[in-house]
Amino acid sequence: MKGVLLVIGVAMVSLGIAGNLSAQETLIETVANGCITEISTYCKAVKPGEGRILACLFAHEDKLSGKCEYAVYDAAARLERAVAALTYVAKECEADIVANCSGVKLGEGRVMQCLENNDAKVSKRCKSAIKDVGLK
After folding, report:
1. Quick check: helix, strand or coil at residue 84?
2. From 1, 8, 30, 110, which residue has the greatest number of CB atoms within 10 Å?
3. What are the angstrom distances between the C-alpha of 100 and each of 87, 119, 125, 130?
4. What's the predicted TM-score (pTM) here?
5. Which residues fall within 8 angstroms of residue 54, CB to CB, at 6 or more apart?
6. Would you say residue 8 has pLDDT above 60?
């Protein structure tokens, strides 16, 4: 459990992943809804942001309900799938990114926007990968 909370916290903070799951609950909402009792009991004085709530849950992991543990594991599994999908797209689009978007600052969807802006130059392989994972 410690490892799962740590991975979610680090990934959400470093990657800025809080949403982008279309109509599904965001990772943060999944944990917040599943752990509402634990958060209001053990973490009510904790200022949200930068993984502090997850750190609080981590500190009280021996007191988490099954519902909360499930929410944390569900968020971790979804995060793992998202990272795998992004890794796949990065691998398939690497040459296109280097050729068309090497000067683009990473983050906030700028590379995806660059690929869309250069659609005519982007390989079918890259376009297919983007479509496969539902980014377009």
Report:
1. helix
2. 8
3. 19, 10, 15, 16
4. 0.65
5. 5, 8, 9, 12, 31
6. no
